[in-house]
Amino acid sequence: MRKLVAGNWKMNGLAADGVARARDLAARAKAKPPVSEIVLCPPATLLAPVAQAIADSGLALGGQDCHTEAAGAHTGDIGAPMLKDAGCVYVILGHSERRRDHQETDAVVRAKAATAVAAGLCAIVCVGETAAERASGRTEAIVVHQLRGSLPPKLNAATLVVAYEPVWAIGSGRTPTVDDVAAVHARIRAALHDLATQADAVRILYGGSVKPVNARELMAVANVDGLLVGGGSLSTEEFWAIASACD
Ligand code: PGA
User: Fold this and answer.
1) Domain residue limits at 200
2) Which of 35, 166, 189, 190 is most buried as measured by Cβ atoms within 10 A of its Cβ?
3) What CATH number is associated with residue 67?
4) Number of independent structural domains in the chain
5) How many whole angstroms from 7 Cα to the centroid of ligand 1?
6) Residues with beta carbon inside 6 Å of ligand 1?
7) 73-127: per-residue pLDDT in tens?
8) Choice from 65, 101, 174, 210 to test ligand 1 binding pocket (greatest atom count within 8 A of CB)
9) Which residues of 50-66 are buried (b: 16+ CB within 10 A; e: fewer)?
10) Residue 22's CB: how many other CB atoms inside 10 A?
11) pTM for the full model?
């Protein structure tokens, strides 16, 4: 299966730097198409100009969140059909920062995923344990529990990507060992056989302090079908090095 590398810009980027980065990445992708599929997830204010900057480059666009409902009286929120309309193919859902900052539960993430898929988007559903949960030996149980609660029934490889992101690894410079990543990804794969169709074709990304120095070894782990990159996606050089880890 083709690996997927997603750049999550989070709440970073103004028109000047964000669009310049998207243009630079688009030029690189046109000059030498990468082996992996690449998706940029800028803040909502930059979706339109980034869509324009990456047109015809082979790079894809993704949102960082959507509402549980498609449209309506929800000031400040963004609906999945709006993301689709802006050119998005993907939307990140249930990121640990959303779960923490906005008290998003598994049930909320599940409703968002259903709405996103109904709008024609592919949902990148994030799960991951805290440091305390890992220390108590409950990582796999926690991750499977989150997955069960967060996935609507019958998603498939075209509508679902799972991202395993240990909360303690995000932005910390710390990553699990490759053996730990392999164990959790294998457990997620097994769980997907109950939770999705075409489970073996659903891509499972690793995320949390992915950098050019560790991208290749993480990408080589069994059942790691790509990477979700935060801080490392804010530099063109770093992100391109990560995105090219399969080339
Ligand atoms: P990080 O973030 O790469 O900065 O650790 C990853 C993420 O939150 O998706």
Assistant:
1) 4-246
2) 166
3) 3.20.20.70
4) 1
5) 9
6) 8, 165, 170-171, 207-210, 228-232
7) 999 999 999 999 999 999 999 999 999 999 999 999 999 999 999 999 999 999 9
8) 210
9) bbebbeebebbbbbbbb
10) 26
11) 0.98
